[in-house]
Specification:
By secondary structure, this protein is an alpha/beta fold. It has a single domain, classed as Alpha/beta knot. The protein has 5 helices and 5 strands; from the N terminus they run βαβαβαβαβα. It has helices at about 15-25, 45-60, 80-90, 110-115, 130-145, and strands at about 1-10, 35-40, 65-75, 95-100, 115-120. A 5-stranded parallel sheet has the order 2-1-4-3-5. α3 (about 80-90) packs across α5. The radius of gyration is 15 Å and the shape is globular. The two termini are about 25 Å apart.
């Protein structure tokens, strides 16, 4: 199984990039992983922006991908819950899990309908770049839980 993280937005600032790179490297010990930055739409209306970004996202997905959408209206999971979700998808022979961080205005309804699971990482609002770092750390934590390693303490 492969993991991919799609994120709408610009490249990471250096202080975020270092952490994201570190956790991505660690995740790579468990699963192949890649990142795909999706260029934000240049349109001016939020509805059109979301539609334009949705088009790019849909083109980057394959029919068999499991899409986990990060959205403030999603279901809250703790770290073991995320580990269980990843394990469940692996047990279902998923070829690739794609985690999606949407754009500044969220995602279009077509993406919400395509998502296999919608996950809220917090009730708080974070800058998208910080969400990338939090997501990378949480995926690494989930991998360490599944491997029964000591990174995560309960």
């Amino acid at each position: 199984m492969k993991l991919s993280i799609f994120s709408v937005g610009k490249a990471n600032d250096s202080y975020i990039k270092e952490g994201v790179d570190q956790f991505t490297k660690r995740i790579g010990h468990y699963y192949p992983i890649d990142w795909q930055l999706i260029t934000p739409s240049k349109l001016s209306e939020p509805v059109q922006i979301k539609k334009g970004e949705a088009s790019s996202i849909i083109k980057a997905l394959s029919v068999t991908d499991i899409l986990i959408l990060l959205d403030e209206k999603g279901k809250m999971l703790n770290s073991p819950g995320l580990a269980n979700l990843i394990q469940q998808k692996a047990n279902q022979s998923a070829q690739r899990i794609v985690f999606l961080i949407g754009g500044a205005y969220g995602v279009d309804d077509d993406i919400k309908k395509r998502a296999n699971f919608t996950w809220s990482i917090s009730d708080l609002v974070f800058p998208h770049m910080l969400v990338r770092l939090i997501l990378a750390e949480q995926i690494y934590r989930a991998c360490s839980i599944l491997a029964n390693e000591k990174y995560h303490h309960e």
